[in-house]
Design brief:
Number of strands: 3
Number of helices: 8
Radius of gyration: 22 Å
Helix content: 40-55%
Largest sheet: 3 strands, antiparallel
Length: 223
């Protein structure tokens, strides 16, 4: 079933479902508006993405997302000195604070940025990360986990080179479980982000600034 709304008004006077001079499906005004609302991209960018995708809404969204992520990557070296501290308390038992940064106070005060910060705080409450990123995991913790993984893999009787690959795979899974930025993103089902880091990058692409999670703190009653 097509994602295209029924009765959409075609741009430039063309009929819904019509093709442009090059044979590609023409983007309707309704499609463009919907895509712009979901991605925050410009009208012309949305129209071009829909045209390049042959009228396929999901493909057009992917095109814009990739374009936005590429732009976000170029902003990685910028200084993010603004932002906000967001909080989340669950049932009076778990409390979380997150320090999320951006480049300007204007973006920090937007609803989009505030929702993102709250979602990350909820992620911390639910997923219980031990570290922000893998670079913060102490060397002794890594060595202890590797020793355990190596012993487990060696017990399988596999050749040494296979054991080495098994250990590397288990270590990656360990990082994905204990490092917040590498955890599976659980909070916003409407987001296509697979990890917390992907989600933050997705927001950076939407707001057009560098966005980063600087730190977090999680308190649990009795823990």
């Amino acid at each position: 079933m097509s994602d295209r709304p029924e009765g959409g008004t075609a741009l430039a006077g063309s009929a819904t479902g019509a093709k442009d001079a090059g044979g590609a499906a023409a983007a309707t005004l309704d499609d463009v508006k919907r895509l712009r609302e979901e991605t925050a991209a410009g009208m012309l960018d949305c129209k071009k993405a829909l045209t390049d995708a042959g009228g396929d809404f999901e493909k057009a969204r992917d095109i814009l997302r990739k374009k936005g992520l590429a732009a976000a990557a170029k902003r990685a070296d910028r200084v993010a000195s603004q932002g906000l501290i967001a909080s989340y308390v669950h049932m009076g038992k778990v409390g979380v604070l997150v320090d999320v940064r951006c480049e300007t106070d204007f973006v920090a005060r937007t609803e989009e940025f505030g929702r993102m910060a709250k979602a990350v705080a909820m992620q911390v409450a639910v997923a219980r990360p031990r570290f922000l990123k893998r670079e913060e995991v102490p060397a002794d913790v890594i060595e202890r986990e590797k020793a355990i993984f190596t012993e487990q893999a060696a017990a399988s009787g596999k050749p040494p080179q296979i054991v080495e690959k098994m250990v590397a795979g288990k270590l990656e899974k360990f990082y994905a479980e204990v490092c917040l930025l590498e955890q599976e993103f659980l909070i916003a089902p409407e987001s296509s982000a697979k990890t917390v880091s992907d989600f933050i990058t997705e927001i950076a692409a939407k707001v057009g600034e560098k966005v980063e999670l600087a730190r977090y703190s999680r308190l649990e009653l009795g823990a």
